[in-house]
Amino acid sequence: MNRDENFKKPKALIEDFNFGAETARVFDDMLDRSVPFYGEIQRMIGELAADFATPGSQVYDLGCSTGTTLMELDRTIPAADVRLIGIDSSEEMLEVARRKFETAPMLHPTELICRNLEHNLELSRASVVVMNLTLQFVRPLYRDRLIQTIAQGTQKRGCLLLVEKVLGQNSTLNRLFIKHYYEFKKRNGYSDMEIAQKREALENVLIPYHHEENRELLQRNGFRACDVFFRWYNFCGMIAVK
């Protein structure tokens, strides 16, 4: 695993964060060191997906990046005829995923598709859809339509597993949560400069909602039941059932 040092040196100009080759090369380390309980979140996604994945259905990972979640789904879903489909807008991320699958071949039929989730997304026979730190990068203008598309392509009693950074309802508590999150990143080896430069790079790219805004988004676009399965300060995992 290549160590994430993309923001280690001072930059004269901070460009918007992107998921190109430079990010893809270090992305697994970036997630391990930047997302609290990342391994546990993956395990929980796998467990819940196994509860809802039905024989002959399709399981989607939207924003699959380097395929880590797909590998967990492959390990935990018992039905051998479930098809795993990973969709991501970054061909560089998908190339890393392909190399990982070559090293550890997948047990389920698996397909990787390069596509922008904001345009022309099609889903069918989905029993489980995963969006793990993905929706926050979709422009708010397109989020209702995206969730509608997911709900329409999901079978009755299928589920959406959504993990997001979220805003706190109270500004004081929100600042505390963010402060403790940056302390978490420091414990994992990131410097103040790295944290500050990445924060600036993400400012116009990662747009979080409040937890309740995400709940309302899900419920008004086709999901009838919604609950939280994970929460750590400003990180939240939700399951929504159609």
Which fold name is given in CATH as the topology? Rossmann fold
What is the string of SSEs from the N terminus onward? HHEHEHEEHEHHEHEE
Number of helices: 8
CATH-level-2 architecture = 3-Layer(aba) Sandwich
Structural class: alpha/beta
Beta-strand content: 15-25%
Biggest beta sheet attributes: 8 strands, mixed
The share of residues in helices is: 40-55%
The CATH class turns out to be Alpha Beta
Structure description:
The chain has 242 residues and is of the alpha/beta class. 42% of the residues lie in helices and 22% in strands. It contains 8 helices and 8 strands; from the N terminus they run H-H-E-H-E-H-E-E-H-E-H-H-E-H-E-E. Strands 1, 2, 3, 4, 5, 6, 7 and 8 form an 8-stranded mixed beta sheet that branches. The relative contact order is 0.16.
Features:
single chain, about 240 residues, alpha/beta, Rossmann fold
Quick recap:
This protein has 242 residues and is an alpha/beta fold.
